[in-house]
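Recall that a protein's primary structure is simply its ordered list of amino acids. Everything else, from secondary elements to tertiary packing, is in principle encoded there. The following example makes that idea concrete.
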Amino acid sequence: MKMKTTWAILVTILSISYIAAYGEVQILPNEAQPNENGSIPLFVGPEENPYECRDEAGNPCPIDTGDNAWMLTSSALVLLMTPGVAFFYAGLARRKSVNSTIMMVFIVMGIITVQWTLYGYSLAFGPAINGQHDFVGDFSYAFLNGVSHKAPLEGPLFPMTIPHQTFMAFQLTFAIITPALIVGGLVDRIKFSAFAIFVVIWATVVYDPLAHWVWGGGFLFDLGALDFAGGTVVHISSGWSALAGALVLGRRLGLGKVPMEPHNIPMIILGASLLWFGWFGFNAGSAVAASGLAASAWVVTNLATGTAAVTWMLMSWAHTGKPSIVGAASGAVAGLVGITPASGFVAPMGAMIIGFVVAMVCYGAVIFKNRRGWDDALDVWGVHGTGGTVGAILTGILANAHINGFDGAWEGDIAQLGVNTLGAAVAIAYSFGLSLLIFKVMDLVWPGGIRVTPREEEVGLDIAQHGERAYVEE
């Protein structure tokens, strides 16, 4: 009885809050009518979302089974990338923090799945029409309200041939991997409990609004910023947020005095390979159809990645006298990052340029941050933050209308370079500034701060935080 009363009170509070924010709840027999802000009521029926495509009889518009199969496959591929990140980071980490590193990446999959379902998807992709909700979405799709498994979205932003739920699931995988990438800047130092709460806050106030700005009909979308698969939304936000976290946490004990080289290079290569494989879903899947554009995105993704891997290997060979395996893997990831925003807009030769340039710039960024003493432990800023920024700018230069209808500065549209540079700058300022604030406030209010004690750091977070060793030796 108490449980029923609690649920009744909760539903009443949510309903009153929604009415106060979006106007009177209005549920019609066949289709819910959006209010003046473009929001739809909570608790609409499965066939009542006015933003989904239905014929005059109320039946869902036809779904292209080929497109749907490809997008479900792409969603699985992108989800696989997060365990790839876990292996990549765990190999780069020290032996005593392997489990801790994997656990932080892995638990993000659970945390964000719940957050995205409850309200994250709605904040990122809630209806944005007639100049409304330019900064963030609303709660129209909270609890996946009105998100059909049969009907596609329609309209100028999302003319689709896949069910609304398929699109939601695809975007979920992006929301998962983005905070997972931040882990690389925090390893060996952050308390697991603090990290778990940070993920929820960060996804809510950083990722969801940024995704809305660029992909959900927000103001960067309206300005015409090009980001096909997440250079701005995923890589700039995660890379610069990781740097903010590294600066707040401070350097690891013994940095520069004791060896901190990667503990397992085969694990690094396994992780990088899973990322390369899954990235085809990341970029080619962002065509949201099994189309020629998806084929183009697949080809340029592979080309930029291969070019960057070879370029980084040659640079490290020239710099250290030996071709580095870890360097080749890092170069491949840098190429994947750099081509992400451009993958739906550039031709093959443009992709090679991006792979070459992003590898050189990211290699230099890693050297720069080491000289500055920034303990971005696993080079999240050096590869993702820097690579995403370079990729966004190069998209504004190398975009080709022959691929997807948009020209960059190289083809004569100088304004596109300006818009993409502005979009990258806004994303950097927002994600870095807000993440710095979140980390600092949490460090002030968290019991004992968000960093583990020196003793725990010395013992290793595997034992200190989780009570489990990665390698048990008899």
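DSSP finds 16 helices and no strands in the chain. Residues 65-139+158-466 form a domain with the Ammonium transporter fold fold (CATH 1.10.3430.10).
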